[in-house]
Amino acid sequence: MRTTIDRQAAWDLLRQYNADRFHLQHALTVEGTMRWYAQELGYGDEADYWGIVGLLHDIDFEQYPDQHCIKAPELLRAGGVGEDVIHAVCSHGYKLTVDVKPEHEMEKVLFAADELTGLLGAIALMRPSKSVQDLEVKSVRKKFKAVNFAAGCSRDVIRQGAEMLGWELDKLFEMTILAMRSCEDSVRAAMETI
């Protein structure tokens, strides 16, 4: 799995359609999370690729929220992005907006971790540290059950993602916390330049 777009071109493409700080921070967080997962799961030579998919995964969400993962192929093709990335990006909308099924392990990770990074970010903001560095699985488990907390983060999607990967929820929680810890400082630093 390879694509020809480099990281800077992917960032520039994302910025054509996204200006909201929340969306940009989410894109950077998912990029870093995906890079960590690539290393952790034995795809280290594809870490840049996994990261680019993470960076671009919500390219259409800010301007076309009602066409999420439907408008993405058009925007990505116009930016010279390969069909491999387009499939991966669209697969995170499986059964929500599109019928593009996550096939590669990377696509399954994106499906599971995308929603979960949002939930973990919301939990972190409630903590005195405002960080995932001291976040523990038991706190995530508690907030996961509180359906009114961060209600926009679909628990069903997170569960489905864990099932696709063949993981228990606690494993997905723990690994995604570690993934977010690995990139939290670099995301903060990047956001200071925007």
The proportion of strand residues reads under 5%
N-to-C terminal Cα separation, in Å?
31 Å
Low-confidence stretches: none
Task: Give me the number of helical elements.
Answer: 9
Label this structure with key terms.
194 residues, mainly alpha, 9 helices, 0% strand
Question: What's the gist of this structure?
Answer:
It contains 9 helices and no strands. It is mostly helical and 194 residues long. α2 (21-40) crosses α9, α6 (105-126) crosses α8 and α6 (105-126) packs across α9 (169-192).
What does this entry look like structurally?
With 194 residues, the protein is mainly α. The protein has one domain (7-192). Helices cover 63% and strands 0% of the residues. The chain is built from 9 helices and no strands. It has helices at residues 7-17, 21-40, 47-56, 72-78, 83-91, 105-126, 137-145, 155-165, 169-192. Helix 6 (105-126) crosses helix 8. The longest helix is centred in the C-terminal third of the chain and has 24 residues, at 169-192. It is globular. It starts with 6 loop residues before the first helix and ends with a helix.
